[in-house]
Amino acid sequence: MDLDLRKLRYFAAVAEHRHFGRAAKQLYIAQPVLSRQIRAFEQELACTLLVRTTRSVELTSAGRQLYEEAQRILPSVGAAVRRVQDADRGVRRLVVAFSPGLHVSEAIKAFTSRHPDVETDVVPAHWWEPDAPLRDGRAQVAYLRQPFDDSGLRTVPIGHEPKVACMPAGHRLAHRRELTTADLDGERLLDAPTRRTSSLEEKFELIASGQGIAFVPLSVARAHSCPGLVRLPVADGPVVETCLAVPADRRGRLPREFLDIATRTLRDGAGLPSR
After folding, report:
1. Per-domain residue ranges for the chain?
2. What is the CATH number of domain 159-239?
3. pLDDT below 70 — which residues of the chain?
4. What is the mean pLDDT of the chain?
5. First to last CA, the chain
6. What confidence score (pLDDT) does residue 55 get?
7. Which residues on neighbouring strands pair with residue 163, listed in sequence order?
């Protein structure tokens, strides 16, 4: 069977909001129309995607799997459509992905000064799957933090960045000027293996509310302020590597030239925050 992309977008909106009314508002369609489209989609797929009650909408196991697939399929299709439209208009475009807290603007300015005829866009890379924009075609080059799945990618090291411990202001260690990892033994860590959050804002709110602590790259902690939260350096704490990445099998001239310019610019600019 052919997958109906329109219905897939409808389903993804419901899965994101867990609410038909809010999803319908986002899609600019009537709620009854959305409900009929989702039921038709379930019939086409021959499986139940959602469990509906009067108060909530929950995903079934099939629904959770489809939502994960949709998060890869829909951006890839959107990027393909844009490339087709660019080809029709004769537009040369370079799209750069970047991890939260990392700044690629200086590299883009240096590249644009050399290639003023090229349109340059940026796309954020989610912290839990930073390589996704490169793999689904949304970006041709990315400025990321390790670790991530770098199979099939060419990476160029840029530098290193410390992680700091983020914790509630009322935590027993919050008054300290510096910590060691031994100080944090027994603490509940809010990291991806233990509790995955959908955004950094959500993660910081959980930390501030006393749900645990987290090691966070310093640039991310600086970029996302949250009342009731403190960040402390960890003397022997983890350090993350920053790098540029491009798909190894792509031979386009623009990504290659951006990679050369960005490598020099980002290294010279010391995009590595001090403690």
Report:
1. 5-73, 90-158+240-268, 159-239
2. 3.40.190.10
3. 1, 192-198, 269-275
4. 88
5. 55
6. 75
7. 217
* 5-73: in CATH 1.10.10.10: yes
Nearest C-alpha neighbor of 163 from the set 218, 212, 203: 218
Same topology between domain 5-73 and domain 159-239: no
Amino acid at 179: L
Q: So what's the pLDDT on residue 179? A: 94
Q: Which CATH superfamily is domain 90-158+240-268 in?
A: Periplasmic binding protein-like II (3.40.190.10)
> Are the beta carbons of 164 and 230 closer than 8 angstroms?
no
Q: Under the phi-then-psi rule, with left for phi > 0, alpha for psi from -120 to 50, and beta for the rest, what region is 63?
A: alpha
Strand 239-247 to 153-168 pairing: antiparallel
Of 153, 182, 264, 166, nearest in space to 222 by CA: 166
pLDDT digits (tens, 9 = 90+) for 167-196: 999 999 999 999 999 999 988 888 755 556
Instruction: Read off the amino acid at residue 49.
Output: L
